[in-house]
Amino acid sequence: MESGKIEKWHKKEGDKIKAGEVLFEVMTDKVTIEVESYNSGILRKILRVEGEEVPVTEVVAYIGEEDEEIPQYELKKEAEETAGKVKEVSEILKEKVKISPIARKLAEKSNLDITKITGTGPRGRILREDVEKYIKSAEEERVEKRVRISPLARKTAKEIGIDYKSEKIVGSGPGGRIVKEDIIAYSKGKEKAGKEVVAAPSAEITIKSSNPLEGIRKVIAERMSYSRSNIPHLVLNAKAGATQLIALREKFKEKILEKYGIKITYTDFILKSTAVALRENLEVNSTFSDGNYIIYDDVNVGVAVSLEGGLIVPIIFNCDKLKITDIAKKKN
């Protein structure tokens, strides 16, 4: 992830913030992430507003004490003070730049800063060709900025040889932004139209053996591949007190074992908690298919179970409506 779009601010300037509270939401290609505050204090200044695309390392707000100075004001003031000096130096440099008359005329016509142009003539003299090359490069850069495309989509386009700057690709992301799926769909469309896609030559690899997958191993491979390709994967770490959970299990585990012959585990409680949380937040219980955001009413939870022959992921249907004992039975 190189950048993200600020989707929503949950706090406003002047609000008191506690460590762990959600400050804002960031939208990426795959998922919307809630960004929490690491510190407590006052939200002194918001630098980037909703809808803006921001690099991951850029400062978007300042949290501090009520009377604490905000660093960006210092930087802005310093930048304003040096702006005039930079302009003066730039004018002096322009006078000393070696450039042919026709190249200078072309540069002035295009309102270019000749100090930024690299000359290829004798002793670094700027020629007409240098100015034309600079103009072409600047135009390509402007086109690059005009095309709204996600970093992942840009990378995908490069890998499969799609020139997204000149090709007419319709973006399906927010505000017409081109996302990875648009690049893939466009590439498949070109293949169907009969345009040959030439793969880059690769070194020969010696294969020792090739054996077809069968039975449980085939199912595991197919399900895991589908999950990885179609479901956004992210890691979220949070601390939660488990004192009451431990006490609850200790209180009932022997009674349940005696009555039902089932050994309940912490996993059973976690499955139940996850299912209830999904029921309360159905927007997470969803998939993305053919440009549609599909929310499901049934809460079915998959749980990885290790067997002697491999790993399987049984589905516990309507998990939010089941008792702990029923979940334990179905899991086992």
TrEMBL record:
Domain Peripheral subunit-binding (PSBD) stretches: 98-135, 148-187
GO molecular function, one term: acyltransferase activity
Pfam family, one: E3_binding
Single biological process term from Gene Ontology: pyruvate decarboxylation to acetyl-CoA
Keywords of the record: Lipoyl
Cellular-component GO terms for this entry: pyruvate dehydrogenase complex
InterPro entries linked: 2-oxoA_DH_lipoyl-BS, 2-oxoacid_DH_actylTfrase, Biotin_lipoyl, CAT-like_dom_sf, E2/Pdx1, E3-bd_dom_sf, PSBD, Single_hybrid_motif
Domain spans labelled Lipoyl-binding: 1-64
Coiled-coil residue windows: none
UniProt record similarity statement: Belongs to the 2-oxoacid dehydrogenase family.
Name of the molecule in the record: Dihydrolipoamide acetyltransferase component of pyruvate dehydrogenase complex
Organism, scientific name: marine sediment metagenome
